[in-house]
Amino acid sequence: MNVFDPFAFRQCFPFFNDNEAGSAASIYFDSAATTQKPQVVIDCLNNFYQQQNANVHRGSYQLSAAATSQFEQARVVLQAFINAPSIQEVIWTKGTTEAINLVATSWGLNNLKKGDEILLSYAEHHANFVPWQVVAQKTGATISVLPLTRTGIIDTSKLNSLVNERTRIVCCSHVSNVIGKLNPIEKIIARAKQVGALTLIDGAQAIAHYAIDVQAFDCDFYVFSAHKAYGPMGVGVLYGRKSLLNAMSPYQLGGEMIKKVSLTETTYNDLPFKFEAGTPNVAGCIAFAKAIYFLKQFDESLNVYEQQLVQYCYQALKTIPQVRFLVEECPDIGIFSFTVAGHHNQDIASGLDSFGIAVRNGHHCAMPLMEYLKVTGSIRLSLAPYNTQAEIDFFIDTLKKIITNYQLSTDKRVLITASGNEKSMTINSDNILALFSSLKGWDARHRQIMLLSKKLTKLAPEQRSQKNLITGCESKAWLNVSKTVENTYIFTADSEAKIIKGLLVIVLAAFNDKTAEQILAFNIEDYFKKLGLLSHLSPSRSNGLNAIVKKIKSTVKEL
Ligand code: PLP
Question: Is the pLDDT of residue 542 over 50?
Fold first, then answer.
């Protein structure tokens, strides 16, 4: 076994070229959402479009034949990667989501009926929940759900009762995208077989970390996406047992999936083409094979390094008393989900973002899991072997600072903002613009927004009602309005998240004490632009801001 060199590995990714490990420039801790792409994959995509671009399976010219050959060769690479018995069992899809929808539609809708059961687990991504829910609604089948152990894996002690003669298919993740724990899929598959149920394994989070052998697993379907394993977006694979795929009807209809079409009748193509209607993502599939080659050149030492990083991060997070992991025990792969006592997830995530650290916050497309674990969401940090201990150290230091409000309490600008007296300060759009005009960079602006959040007077519980809720905000936010005798409006608002509170102060500064005409005429886009916020707010946060403005404008129109 060689010694894995994380810095050499990191250099394969142009994304990191300008960013030194541990600097505040850019620390990418969201590889579970999508990994960065190595140069070889990017080059492969470029080469295809620059020099080899032609459609596959159609042209009688050399260019098309070459594209077809590369495309089919990529399928062979994927077949070997997952040890599928036949090339006909490797279906290209857009990704995990499409692969599951394919099975749910083509197999589920045609084979399930009232009295049948679909067995899922609480740890499923929405991609492995919603398609089955719809199939159940349409066919009359019911959904049962496997519980989890305290350590976050599927509880196999419940297998015997939950997998029974009514169970027709068991669908579960190989590794949860929230908990990062490896599920005992072999046991689950073996139990499903005892009752003649099919099995679908969602390998989206496993594919970059574990050897996948569908023959050893003996599952019926295995699905995954390229972009979570250094490949491009918009490509994925459905492995399916040939006998089942042959018996299933096509998922989409059109070119490529046919053998013969007459005015009245169509005969379908053989596998795998029967399930590949339309022009596939040729460049993406070829580049996915390149990503697999890339990954395979590193031996076991890569996994050893990953494990060291996981342990290092887990131990470091454990030193922070406010950190609450969603489940007990260290995760199996580098996915850490936690909350921070006394802080809103969004505030922590946006605070880290202001230091150039990218982590996720929210429900991670796993709302049933959040409900099961009795949390509204979590912060998720996910690692890949291009991450380093230095980055983790920087993250831990930053998180500690955010938690202790070090940044806020030592910042002098709050005093300037308040003109030495917080109560006497008039918060209006001119003052806010003046305040932001001297700020450089997102971290300074973010800090200022957090400072402003303190100026929002808390709403009484009765004012935080369903009626006052602003829909469309990332975190809960409420708005109240009253009209003065001068026909101007006074808005008060509140939110669970500090960042939203700060943004509310900025928005209300523009609208408070104004008439309906002034409110409707105010150019909020221009205001945000001048404040330097537009380029830094994530789409969901921008949507939240727009939702607040929309609510204000619609309220004054109604009154
Ligand atoms: N399943 C799991 C476990 C995932 O983590 C994800 C994506 O995060 C998906 C399914 C959906 O993958 P995609 O969006 O690539 O289709």
Answer: yes
Dihedral, 58, 63, 67, 68 alpha carbons, nearest 10:
40
Of 162-171, 241-250, 512-521, where does mean pLDDT reach its minimum? 512-521
What 8-state DSSP symbol labels residue 487? S
Rounded to the nearest whole angstrom, what is the distance from the C-alpha of residue 185 to the centroid of ligand 1? Answer: 18
The tokens 């905000």 sit on which residue? 473
**Nearest atom, ligand 1, residue 233 CA:** 15
127 lines ligand 1 (CB under 6 A): yes
Distance 125 CA to ligand 1 centre (A): 7
DSSP 48: I
- CA–centroid distance, residue 1 to ligand 1 (Å): 32
Is residue 27 within 8 Å of 397, Cβ to Cβ? no
Whether omega before 321 lies within 30 degrees of 0, making that bond cis, reads no
More confident position, 492 or 223? 223
- What mean pLDDT value characterizes the chain? 90
Closest by CA to 96, choosing from 252, 269, 221, 274, is 221
Q: Where are the domains of the chain?
A: 6-30+299-408, 32-89+249-297, 96-225, 415-558
Residue 101 beta carbon below 6 angstroms from any ligand 1 atom: no
Please tell me the least confidently modeled range out of 155-164, 230-239, 325-334, 400-409: 400-409
Q: What percent of the chain has pLDDT over 70?
A: 94
Burial of 409: CB neighbours in 10 Å, binned 0-12, 13-18, 19+: exposed
- pTM attached to this predicted model: 0.81
- Fold entry, domain 96-225: Aspartate Aminotransferase; domain 2 (3.40.640)
Q: Classify domain 415-558 at the CATH topology level.
A: Sufe protein. Chain: A (3.90.1010)
pLDDT at 558 over 90: no
User: Please, which residues have CB within 8 angstroms of residue 235's CB and are 6 or more apart in sequence?
Assistant: 92, 93, 94, 95, 225, 226, 227, 281, 284, 285, 287, 288
Q: Is residue 297 left, alpha or beta, with left meaning phi > 0 and alpha meaning psi from -120 to 50?
A: alpha
The answer to whether the beta carbons of residues 134 and 212 sit under 8 Å apart is no
Assess whether the region 32-89+249-297 and the region 96-225 belong to the same CATH fold: yes
**Is any ligand 1 atom within 6 A of the Cβ of residue 204?**
yes
225 touches ligand 1 (CB under 6 Å): yes
Which tokens go with 406?
């070090």
Q: What digits encode the pLDDT tens for the residues 417-453?
A: 333 334 345 678 888 888 888 888 888 888 888 888 8
Place of tokens 């569908």: 214
Cα 391 to ligand 1 centroid, rounded to whole Å? 26
Does the domain formed by 6-30+299-408 have CATH 3.40.50.300? no
Q: Which residues are catalytic?
A: 365
Does the domain at residues 32-89+249-297 carry the CATH identifier 3.40.1190.20? no
- Locate the ligand 1 atom nearest the alpha carbon of residue 365 and give its number: 8
Indicate which atom in ligand 1 lies nearest the CA of residue 225.
Answer: 15
504-508 mean pLDDT: 90
What's the confidence (pLDDT) of residue 19?
A: 55
205 CB near ligand 1 (under 6 Å) = yes
Indicate if the pLDDT at residue 530 is higher than 80: yes
